[in-house]
Amino acid sequence: MNNPNLSVDTLQRRTSTGGTEEAAGISAEVSAGKFRKSPYLIAGAFFTVYLLLSARRHAANLSTGYDLGIFTQIVKSYSEFSAPYSPLKGPDYNTLGDHFHPILALLAPAYRAFPSSYTLLVCQAALVAFSVIPLMKWAHDVRGRKFAYWVGVSYGASWGLAKLLSFDFHEVAVAVPLLSLSLCAAGRQRWRAALLWSLPLVLVKEDLGLTVAAIGAYAAWKGPRVAGLAVAAFGAAATALEMLVILPYFNPVGKFAYWPAPTPEETGLLMQAAEAFWPPVKWLTVLMIVAPTGFLALRSPIVLIALPTLAWRFTSPNPFHWGTDFHYSAVLMPIAFAAAVHTVASGRVTARRLVPACVVGAVVTGVTFFTHPLHELVLPRTWAESAHVRTADELLAKIPDGATVAASNQLAAQLVDRATVSEICLFPRSFPPSEPPQWLIYDDKDMTDPDCAAGQAMEAATPDVPGYRLADRQDGISLFTRVTDEG
Predict the structure, then answer these.
(1) Do residues 354 and 344 touch, judged by C-beta distance below 8 A?
(2) Under 8 Å CB-to-CB from 418, ≥6 apart: which residues?
(3) How far apart are alpha carbons 158 and 42 in whole angstroms?
(4) Rounded to an integer, what distance in angstroms lies between the CA atom of residue 93 and that of residue 417?
(5) Which 8-state DSSP code applies to residue 303?
(6) Is 268 exposed, middle or buried (0-12, 13-18, 19+ CB in 10 A)?
(7) Whole-number Å distance between alpha carbons of 371 and 264
(8) Over the stretch 104-152, which tens digit does the pLDDT of each residue have?
(9) Where is this region: Disordered (predicted)?
(10) Nearest to residue 160, comparing CAs of 259, 266, 253, 288?
(11) What is the pLDDT of residues 290-342, one digit of tens each?
């Protein structure tokens, strides 16, 4: 009975029914054997779902230059043994001045073999799906197959992950499996593995050093004090170094791009602190993070590891950071579900109360399935190619490989793997290209570019775009080519 997948709790529950300890052990080993492939099958199923969702959105021109286009340019640069430049951010713009994500260089070999934006979507789907496996294995050891299936399905279908998969590609996809591995090891008190798995997070994004610090602090509290404090100090120092030195060094204006605006002098410290808890959408976000776990996460100290991410989001002046949209909550999903499993493993919830909690979590997951992106896979429109998309593909095909192009946001994502692409609407945080691009293409149905002055000029019945002539216009999509001295 030295099977590592066999927990003491499982043996106690099974021997209490009257069987011998030996018989219970054999039965548990058989059960563990049957379960062994299940985490991989569940992860494989979610990989398929994730990839279908993101790939179909990309095929329907719903992905964007901000951000799939930018990250494709980054990984493409790495695959060419170059610094991570992104023309969408600006000419010769080194994106290590925007966010600190050198870990994306690990995707370069895959992109070099398959140079396409779809490669990033495949890698993202695989990374996120893999994170299901450690959580399911731990849940099985704690409470058996049914609990493990509930954890795997609820976590894999959670709204935070769905938002990440439906909104292009982001570097935090790499953080999701690292957090799953680290926190499952911490919950099992395998401190060395927990700390080591957390360390690469400092290479994923600059704020995640604070999450590393939180994991180190948790280890110092519950396990090896010296090692935990060392990792906590390392994580905090990494964030400070990245925000105060590295990012400003590479940023064109010489500072970290996302510092909040200075607070007016008349705003007191108490008012500033209160603003971190208002408006109510912030409380809704917290509720939505723990609700899929049936609120089990609230009974484990592991949930405190979410505080650094919540702190920077809720103190940010950007309203997009406060709610449940976009990809910002993806890194909180493995924290919440690891906390839920830890709650059960530590005996903080009785078997009688566990079932209602799981029912609540399942209901929340079921409801959010229909309010968040995964439900798109069951909609007929997801699988139908519209006439507008066919027209866009036809006009995009007229742009030769290797050309320089200024494109509207959604069309930019379709071009970045074969052309040098900039953003035609010139987002406020972007810089115009140093040389006029050879082609312009604009889609007036692209609602991601509000108040686009360049686009409005191109939409005119007789457009006057200096230096360019209208090459084609169909279904609201305008294609311009640059006029050369030769003609």
Answers:
(1) yes
(2) 401, 402
(3) 14
(4) 17
(5) G
(6) exposed
(7) 38
(8) 999 999 999 999 999 999 999 999 999 999 999 999 999 999 999 999 9
(9) 1-23
(10) 288
(11) 999 999 999 999 999 999 999 999 999 999 999 999 999 999 999 999 999 99
Say how far apart CA 356 and CA 325 lie, in whole Å: 28
Alpha carbons 135 and 151: distance in angstroms, whole number? 7
Is the confidence at residue 9, as pLDDT, over 90?
no
CB 407 within 8 A of CB 65: yes
Of 49, 128, 190, 138, nearest in space to 337 by CA: 138
Q: One-letter amino acid identity for 467?
A: G
Please identify which residue in the block is written with the tokens 């050879």. 438
Q: Nearest Cα to 143, choosing from 311, 332, 357?
A: 357
Helix and strand numbers, DSSP H then E, in the chain = 23, 5
Whether the model clears a pTM of 0.85, i.e. scores above it, the answer is yes
Q: How many Cα atoms within 13 Å fall on the side-chain side of residue 26? A: 4
Token digits of residue 121: 């979507």
Cβ-proximal residues to 415 (8 Å cutoff; 6+ apart), any chain:
69, 396, 399, 405, 407, 421
Token code pair at residue 216: 């180190």
Instruction: Name the nearest CA neighbour of 208 among 234, 181, 227.
Output: 234
How far are the Cα atoms of 44, 58, 117, 322, 378 from residue 385, in angstroms, in the given order? 27, 12, 19, 34, 15
Q: How many residues does the chain have?
A: 487
**CA 337 to CA 296: how far, in whole Å?**
8
Contact in structure between 67 and 49 (CB atoms under 8 Å)? no
Task: Return the biggest CA–CA distance within the chain.
Answer: 93
Residues 133 and 332: their CA atoms lie apart, in Å, by 17
CA-based Rg of the chain, rounded to a whole angstrom?
25
Residue 344: partners with Cβ closer than 8 Å, 6 or more residues away = 139, 142, 143, 147, 296, 354
pLDDT of 486 strictly over 90: no
CB–CB of 142/188 below 8 Å? Answer: no
Question: How do strand 477-482 and strand 439-443 relate by DSSP bridges?
Answer: antiparallel
Among 242, 245, 248, 250, which Cα is nearest to 83's? 250
Structural tokens at position 144? 């058996």
Q: Tell me if the bond preceding 279 is cis, omega within 30° of 0.
A: yes
